[in-house]
Amino acid sequence: MELTMGLKEENLKEAVLWEPSSGEDKKIQCKLCNHRCTIDDGKLGRCCVRKNIDGVLYSLTYDKVCSANPDPIEKKPLFHFQPGTSSFSVATMGCNFRCEFCQNWQISQAAIERGRINGEPITPEQIVEGAVRNRCKSIAYTYTEPTVFIELCNDCGRLGKERGLTNVFVSNGYMTTEAIDFAANWLDGINVDLKAFNEDYYKRLCKARLQPVLDTISYIAKQTNIWLEITTLLVPGENDSDD
Ligand code: SF4
C-alpha cells in the first residue's frame, strides 16, 4: 500500500552527521555520503531527501516508509549471511546516485525528479515487530540507498538488536567512513554494488565516482567486523565484453 504525503516539516527528523559550514551563515555540510554536499538554508542535498531548515539538517523520509515486507535474504542478495532465512526488507524514497539503469527508479528517483516523497508513517517499533511476526532473522535496508535514510536504520537497528535481529544494508557503497563508524555497532552485513571498475562509467551513468566506493569496500573489509559481499550488475554494452 502506498500513501502520498506532502513534506510536512513538523514530522521531520533531525539528521545525523552534518556540521555548520565554516564562516557561512546557516550553510551546512552533510557528512553522510561522499558527495559531502554543502547546503544553503532552505535547500536540499543532492539526494533530495535531506534539507537544511534554518541551519539544521533534517531527514525528510524518516516517517515515510515505502516498502516493508519479508524476503529471502538471498534476494537482497546476500548468499553467505544467515542463508535460508527471511529478511524484513525496508525502504524509504531517495538515493544519492542517479543510475540510468536503476531497477527501482520509481522509488529511488521520485524525490529527485518530481520532488515527491511517498510513504507510510511506520515506526521503528512497528518495523521490528513486523520482522519478528514474519519470523525474519534480520532487517534489510534495501531497494533504495539506505545511507540516505540512516536515521531510520539506526533506530530500527538498535531496537532490532534487542530482539535478536541482525541488520543488513544493500548499498552503493558511497557512504563516508564517518557513516560506517556510526553504523558499525548495529550493522552486521552489507552487500556493496560495485557497478563497474571504471571512473567514466560511474560519472556518466551514475553521476558519482568509483574511488569512494573502493575506499568503502576496503574500509569495511579491513577496519570493521561487518560481513561484506560485493555484487556487480551487468549492463549489456556498458560493463561487459565478449572476452
Ligand atoms: S546524503 Fe544526501 S545531502 Fe548528504 S552528502 Fe549525500 S547526497 Fe548530499
From TrEMBL:
Record's keyword terms, sorted: 4Fe-4S, Iron, Iron-sulfur, Metal-binding, S-adenosyl-L-methionine
Keyword match 4Fe-4S: yes
Positions of the Radical SAM core domain: 80-243
PROSITE patterns for the chain: RADICAL_SAM
InterPro entries linked to this entry: Aldolase_TIM, AmmeMemoSam_rS, Organic_radical-activating, rSAM, rSAM_sf
Requisite cofactors: [4Fe-4S] cluster
Name of a matching Pfam family: Radical_SAM
GO terms assigned for molecular function: 4 iron, 4 sulfur cluster binding; catalytic activity; metal ion binding
Keyword 4Fe-4S found: yes
Entries under PANTHER family matching the protein: PYRUVATE FORMATE-LYASE 1-ACTIVATING ENZYME (PTHR30352:SF5), PYRUVATE FORMATE-LYASE-ACTIVATING ENZYME (PTHR30352)
NCBIfam families, per the entry: AmmeMemoSam_rS
Protein name per its UniProtKB record: Radical SAM core domain-containing protein
Species classification: unclassified sequences, metagenomes, ecological metagenomes
